[in-house]
Design brief:
Layout lengths: L5 H12 L2 E6 L4 E6 L2 H13 L23 E3 L20 H7 L43 H8 L20 E5 L10 H10 L4 E4 L4 E6 L3 H11 L7 E3 L3 H7 E2 L2 H7 L6 E6 L15 E5 L4 H10 L3 E5 L11 H8 L5 E5 L11 E5 L2 E6 L9 E12 L9 E10 L9 H17 L6 E5 L5 H8 L8 E5 L1 H12 L6 E11 L5 E9 L4 E7 L2 E2 L4 H5 L1 H12 L17 H13 L5 E2 L2 H11 L11 H9 L11 E5 L2 E5 L1 H12 L4 H27 L3 E5 L6 H13 L3 E3 L11 H10 L8
Length: 752
């Protein structure tokens, strides 16, 4: 992988072993030709792998013996570009300790310089336009190095040898502070002035590695509410940035593994248990008990956080679900009504990059959003793949390109609900195709006909002669993505729980039990079908989902006016919903587990309408009394060889609890326990039928940490082997990987 300091490492290694020859990058690999004493050569090969740079990922080493040439020295040759070959690209990397020490040292020439980097850290993917990774092919080509920087760049023994973004205050990018009209704010110290503005309650748009972030004082309810109002984000949680681990511990509970994740070179946002005594205002994450926290990952962030001495909100620089703003003029145009001031710089961003989000569960990290620090590093496949483009889903979309044993799962693209996101999607596909020299012979897409990603794929039919087009069922892709996450190629019982996925029968699936492998699946069971009154409207108004469940399962008499649910609806709307259900107009059937969580959240009075995806379910999880061990009854009914989970008894019991004064906290816990028992009983039955005892859990519902813990504990106690996600998001961010793998094994491409 280029951009990790491998060639200077080789130079230092051969110097130590008294060898001669050369090393160079190519479009495919690193090539080394060395000669010397046999013992030195043998030790060189050992050290090449065992002492490689911290960012290097050596996939394989092959060596051949040649006749000595008689080299007189050791050289680092210019990179060789080869048609059709490719090499891996490093993600952007958080500031390393050595660079941070320089930035914080008053006597250093890079003191407080916000673009300090070396071969072990700094921008990579966001500035690369093409390979090989050399400065003329990056957005740093506009900055000519000063003599001191050039000397570092040319010295194989310096940690900045061939660090393509290398720069200093004399020759590199610079900051500028402007107001929301684009007028320069005159100041001797841009970061000091920006910190003062933040401390006074202003909203500042900050140009980072992969785009703009919107920042404000996270301890000020007034500032956070103003940001919410301007950004049109009423309640979806914001992430915050804190200066150090010590400060993180003041606000959150942090395990050893969570500390390691926070301080890793990927430096993602980590969702941590929020302490009640934290001074971060509850307006940052209303109704939740986990807080998204990250540490500074660029020199600019390090200096700004130290100057401000406050927890700062750091949220994506966009409105609603648009892509984050990337360029200075674009940011001023799109965010001028949100931010009071803009902290700009003149280093161009080539590829937009959101912050990654992770949790730690079952003593291992799990990515919720895969972007900065992780993409475009590939997921390794347990087979040799064809060249495939998989277009992903609708929400939390990614795409995936495969070649050889690599699956290049893109960074988080976003919700494919507007033309701006579609344009970002298309541009990023072209970048990946160029970087990794992929010309797709197969294009895979979701079966849902209305997804923008599906329409994009189908629009390629006329211009893609000889390319096969493969539709992939959504939940099949979910389970296969989990298999690939574990490097497995076998059949499993797949449990796919999410909000929406187009089913083979035309219904909306989302509570599925599948016998799954790469080549296909069999639907062995599902949650019962219920009406989705009003379609998309029922997703945004969970009270409609609750009424749909009650009318369908228990009848009109169950809609007692004293139920907490009825605060959200009047009798007239109830009549309209009933007519929709009886007529079937705009009321598809769904087996969605996500909609089941919505219905229960509305039924107990937690949330009637949502401002963001899965809000009702997230808030239902947040209130659960985790000391409660009870659960509700349910039935499993055989229907034509398929096991269907029926919830009439569950809803009757919840209503009984509500009328008996049982708290929503206890009801939530009992409901979570029930869903874990549903998975257990179904998987035990299916394991008996199939002889398979390995269960893969996938889908956005398994972002619910309480449910994931309860479910895995129950399955493992029953001696079933459980697969959960790690490197690949369990939500729709992993669907494109599953699509790509399934398309590789499709017997023949077909247009659908």
């Amino acid at each position: 992988m280029q951009g990790v300091g491998f060639r200077p490492f080789v130079y230092q290694l051969v110097t130590r072993h008294i060898l001669k020859g050369w090393v160079c990058n190519t479009s495919e690999d690193v090539r080394i030709d060395v000669e010397g004493e046999q013992a030195a050569l043998d030790q060189f090969l050992v050290d090449l792998e065992s002492t490689a740079p911290p960012l290097a990922h050596i996939e394989s080493v092959s060596a051949v013996i040649e006749k000595p040439v008689g080299f007189e020295s050791f050289e680092i040759l210019e990179s060789i570009s080869e048609e059709g070959k490719y090499q891996l690209v490093s993600p952007d990397v958080a500031t390393c300790p050595a660079c941070l020490e320089e930035v914080l040292s008053p006597d250093d020439r890079r003191y407080r310089y916000p673009f300090t980097n070396c071969t072990n850290c700094g921008p990579r993917f966001t500035i690369i336009e093409d390979m090989p990774y050399d400065r003329p092919k990056t957005t740093m080509r506009h900055f000519k190095m000063c003599p001191e920087c050039q000397q570092e760049y040319d010295d194989p023994l310096n940690r900045r040898f061939h660090a393509q973004p290398n720069a200093c205050p004399r020759c590199g990018p610079a900051l500028e502070l402007v107001d929301n009209k684009g007028r320069t704010v005159e100041t001797k110290d841009v970061l000091l002035e920006a910190s003062r503005l933040l401390s006074e309650g202003n909203i500042v748009a900050i140009k980072g590695l992969g785009g703009f972030l919107l920042s404000c004082d996270a301890t000020s309810e007034k500032a956070v509410r103003l940001l919410r109002e301007r950004k049109q984000r009423p309640s979806k949680p914001f992430a915050i940035m804190l200066t150090s681990l010590e400060e993180v511990e003041e606000h959150c509970q942090v395990s050893v593994l969570e500390k390691q994740l926070l301080t890793s070179h990927q430096s993602p946002i980590v969702l941590l248990k929020w302490k009640s005594e934290s001074t971060v205002t509850k307006a940052v994450a209303p109704g939740l008990k986990h807080l998204g926290v990250m540490l500074p990952y660029t020199p600019m962030h390090h200096v700004l956080l130290r100057e401000t001495a406050l927890p700062l909100v750091m949220t994506s620089g966009n409105l609603s679900e648009e892509p984050i703003a990337r360029d200075n003029d674009e940011a001023l145009r799109r965010l001028g009504g949100v931010a009071d001031y803009f902290l700009l710089h003149n280093r161009d961003i080539y590829s937009t990059y959101d912050d990654s989000v992770a949790i730690v569960e079952r003593d291992r990290p799990q990515l919720v959003r895969r972007a900065r620090g992780y993409a475009p590093y590939p997921i390794h496949l347990p087979f040799e793949a064809k060249q495939v483009l998989a277009c992903g889903a609708e929400l939390k979309d990614t795409f995936c390109l495969t070649r050889n044993d690599h699956a290049f799962l893109s960074q988080h693209i976003g919700d494919m609900e507007n033309l701006e996101t579609l344009e970002h999607f298309e541009n990023t596909i072209e970048l990946y195709k160029r970087l990794f020299r992929v010309q797709p012979e197969i294009i895979a897409y979701d079966m849902h006909p209305e997804y923008l990603s599906t329409k994009y794929a189908k629009d390629l039919v006329d211009e893609s002669s000889g390319v096969a087009f493969v539709p992939v069922q959504h939940h099949h892709a979910h389970i296969v993505s989990c298999l690939v996450d574990h490097g497995l190629q076998e059949s499993v019982i797949g449990v796919a729980f999410d909000g929406t996925g187009f089913g083979m029968d035309g219904c909306i699936w989302g509570g599925e039990f599948l016998l799954t492998d790469y080549k296909g699946f069999e639907r062995l069971g599902h949650l019962q079908y219920v009406p989705l009154p009003g379609g998309e409207t029922a997703i945004k108004k969970p009270y409609r989902m609750a009424i749909g469940y009650l009318l369908h399962i228990l009848g009109r008499d169950s809609l007692d006016d004293n139920l907490p649910l009825m605060q959200y609806v009047d009798s007239q709307e109830t009549d309209i919903i009933e007519k929709q259900i009886s007529s079937g107009i705009n009321t598809p059937l769904t087996s969605s587990c996500g909609r089941l969580f919505d219905a229960v959240a509305a039924l107990v009075g937690v949330r009637g309408q949502v401002d963001y995806e899965a809000q009702a379910a997230i808030e239902l999880e947040a209130i659960a009394d985790e000391g409660e061990g009870g659960h509700y009854p349910f039935s499993i009914i055989g229907q034509g060889g398929v096991d269907v989970v029926s919830f009439g008894e569950l809803f009757t019991a919840i209503i009984t609890d509500l009328k008996g004064g049982v708290s929503p906290e206890v009801i939530s816990a009992r409901f979570h326990n029930t869903i874990a028992q549903v998975v257990l009983r179904m998987c035990q039955s299916l394991a008996g039928r199939t002889g398979i005892n390995k269960v893969a859990l996938s889908g956005g519902v398994f972002q619910n940490r309480l449910l994931l813990r309860l479910t895995t504990a129950a399955l493992e106690a029953a001696e079933l082997s459980v697969l959960t996600h790690g490197k690949v998001p369990t939500n729709d961010g992993g669907v494109s990987l599953g699509q790509a793998v399934i398309a590789n094994f499709a017997e023949e491409g077909r247009i659908s």
